[in-house]
Amino acid sequence: MERVTGDRDPADLSRTFRDVLGRFASGITVVTSLADDGPAGFACQSFASLSLDPPLVLFCVAKTSTSWPRIRATGRFAVNILAADQRDECRAFAVPGGDKFAGTAWSRSVHGTAHLDGALAVVDCLIDDVHEAGDHHVVIGAVRDLRDHRDHPPLLYFRGAYADGVFT
Ligand SMILES: Cc1cc2nc3c(=O)[nH]c(=O)nc-3n(C[C@H](O)[C@H](O)[C@H](O)COP(=O)(O)O)c2cc1C
Asked: What structural domains does the chain harbor?
């Protein structure tokens, strides 16, 4: 059994951190908004529900993200929860920069965000708070609209690989 201790060398700790945290399976989202210069978005696994009253959600974004400053400037975001048949979309949105929306069907929402066609559900938010934490920002969103679009298995991520979430 691997354990992380404070006296590990940094390279070993980084590898073990990725290895161990990669064992936490999750769904995948694409966080978007509509900036002045067009839609912005990136693949995001660190989405979570935070509070029911008031309704809040959160995600974590790397300080190196090129989309986040554009999303942040709009003051809002949408979380598109991906379906199992959206692996290609996920890969496209996991690449920095470029026109990620070119090969993806999407629409402008009334909230000024981008909704991806085929998403299982979308959560529209206003940016409520942003905390700095290590090499990421923790972004808290105040929910203003929720839509469930499809009854379809989710796209899952586990140990660096995609899986279809089929539940019986
Ligand atoms: C399955 C998956 C989950 C990801 N989750 C996150 C995440 O939670 N936060 C983050 O900042 N980047 C995450 N990424 C990486 C970003 O999508 C990637 O760095 C992307 O290039 C950022 O694009 P940008 O520079 O346009 O913001 C994830 C990538 C994949 C493939």
From this structure: 27-159 (2.30.110.10)
**Distance (Å, rounded) from C-alpha 8 to C-alpha 11?**
8
Closest listed residue to residue 154, CA positions, set 84, 97, 86, 104: 84
Is ligand 1 within 6 A of the CB of residue 96? yes
Which helix (H) or strand (E) is 122 found in, with range?
Answer: strand 121-133
Q: Distance between CA 33 and CA 62 in Å, rounded? A: 17
Section 128-154 average pLDDT: 96
Nearest CA, atom 15, ligand 1: 94
Which of the residue ranges 34-48, 93-107, 111-125, 132-146 would you say has the lowest mean pLDDT? Answer: 93-107
Taking the model in full, what pTM does it have?
Answer: 0.95
- From 110, 88, 75, 69, select the one nearest 30 (Cα to Cα): 88
